[in-house]
Amino acid sequence: MIRALTLLAVSVITSACVSQPEIYAPPAQRKPLDQEILVRAQPMLDMSDPTVERYFVADIAKGVQSSPWRWTGPRPSVRVTLKSTSNLRYHMEFTLPEVTFKDTGPVTITYFVNHRVLDKVKYDTAGNKVFDKAVPSGFLKPMDENVLAAEVDKPWLSKGDGRRLGLILSRIGLQ
């Protein structure tokens, strides 16, 4: 009996001699960085960029492209995320092809920022075009997605497959 008590006392005493690890407070918790904002610091989309399709909202041809441009439907739309909304310009580089322009004649393109009309421009000739206009900061949402669109008033109707084509888009975004 004494022997059992002695063994019990020795085991209790030796188990109390184990060193305990030091206690540390957990590290400060932080919100993870928004990778989309870090990647797209310049909200200008080149149609030749292989990752550009993730920013398409509507009416822009998808799939592997061997050219630096894409056909659009009547209202191509993209989304861009902005850090700041001050001193930005809506910039779009596109082509009104002669093959469609001979059927449609002059076209008017309405430019939208977050579903608000920024401008309407009438184009009387085919060829390469550039639209560039300052965007009022009230049209834009900082640290959020913003939608840019351009609506062609008279899209060309393909006689072969019935598709409605708007223009050939090379670049679109805010700079």
What would you note in describing this structure?
This protein is mostly beta strands. Helix content is 15%, strand content 40%. The strands form 2 sheets. Strands 1, 2, 3, 4, 5, 6, 7, 8 and 11 form a 9-stranded antiparallel beta sheet that branches. The longest helix has 14 residues, at 2-15.
Task: Please mark out the parts with pLDDT under 50 across 5 or more consecutive residues, or reply none.
Answer: none
Shape: elongated
Mean pLDDT: 88
Helical segment count: 3
SS class: mainly beta
Output the helix-strand order: HHEEEEHEEEEEEE
> In oligomeric terms, what are we looking at?
single chain
Q: For the report, how would you describe the main beta sheet?
A: 9 strands, antiparallel
| Total number of beta strands | 11
Helix content estimate: 10-25%
User: In angstroms, what is the radius of gyration?
Assistant: 30 Å
End-to-end distance: 89 Å
Percent in strands:
35-45%
What can be said about this structure in brief?
The chain is 15% helix and 40% strand.
Which helices and strands, and how do they pair?
Elements: H1 2-15, H2 35-39, E1 44-46, E2 56-60, E3 70-81, E4 89-96, H3 98-104, E5 107-113, E6 116-123, E7 127-134, E8 145-152, E9 156-157, E10 164-165, E11 168-174
Feature tags:
175 residues; mainly beta; 40% strand
